[in-house]
Amino acid sequence: MPYTQFTTIGKVKEAFNLTTQKGIIFLPEHPIAPSSTLTDYLQESLPLVASGSEKARSQGII
Q: Is-above-0.90 flag for pTM?
């Protein structure tokens, strides 16, 4: 089925035999500390992103 035919969540659920569950199910029990690699990367790159345009900021986050 092409992407354009999935116009409602009901069609997706039916096509793939899915069920939905209400509520938040993917939150960890305890906060997870960022790795030192991520922390170092953000410390280096965020000043460059923050000084640029809106497009630069959005691309920097991605």
A: no
